[in-house]
Amino acid sequence: MEHLHVKRLRAYIHDDIAPEERSNIEAHLDDCPDCFMEYLGLIDQWEPDLSLSEDFTDKTMEQWQTQAPKKHVRPSMTRKQTLLHYGVAAGLTIILMSTGVFQHMIEWTGKHDEPSGMPLTEKIMNSTNAWLDEMKEREGNE
Ligand SMILES: [Zn+2]
After folding, report:
1. How many Cβ atoms sit within 10 Å of the Cβ of residue 9?
2. CA 42 – ligand 1 centroid, Å
3. How far is the CA of 4 from the centre of ligand 1 (A)?
4. Residue extents of the structural domains in the chain
5. Residues with Cβ < 8 Å from 34, sequence gap 6 or more?
6. How far, in Å, CA of 12 to CA of 17, rounded?
7. Ligand 1 centroid to 26 CA: how many Å?
8. Ligand 1 mean position, distance from CA 23 (Å)
9. pLDDT one digit per residue (tens) for the chain, 142 residues
10. Cα(17) to centroid of ligand 1, in Å?
């Protein structure tokens, strides 16, 4: 399998690619933990360019609005929902990475002998959920 070039990932993050290219990249990110980590790293480095037009912000907001609050989930929505979840997990991951909690979670996940075929994204999701549960418990104890 050919890995994604960093330039393509950047273009993807900047939403600067053709729709079919976008789905190719998303399919690869789903399958390839290496490129997914690379992608997370790039998001981490990425700071919104303040010189970007307002149109960009509008477009982004529009995407969130069309993707987020849908009650009637058609089968074709499932994939988008999944990607949205990945997006949320990715956001949390970045926060956790920068605070060092992520490292702790990876170690923690490693101790729990999960099926080795589990995709990294799922591991991150599980770790994130476990972390959130832990936070809730702590709140409850106080
Ligand atoms: Zn790859």
Report:
1. 21
2. 14
3. 5
4. 1-47, 54-142
5. 3
6. 6
7. 11
8. 14
9. 689 999 999 999 888 999 999 999 999 999 999 999 999 888 877 665 555 555 666 666 666 666 655 454 455 556 666 666 677 777 776 666 666 665 565 666 555 555 556 677 777 777 778 877 887 777 766 5
10. 18
Looking at residue 118, the DSSP 8-state letter turns out to be S
Q: Measured in angstroms, how far is the CA atom of residue 95 from the centroid of ligand 1?
A: 24
Alpha carbon of 27 to ligand 1 centroid (Å): 10
**Is the entire prediction scored with pTM above 0.70?**
no
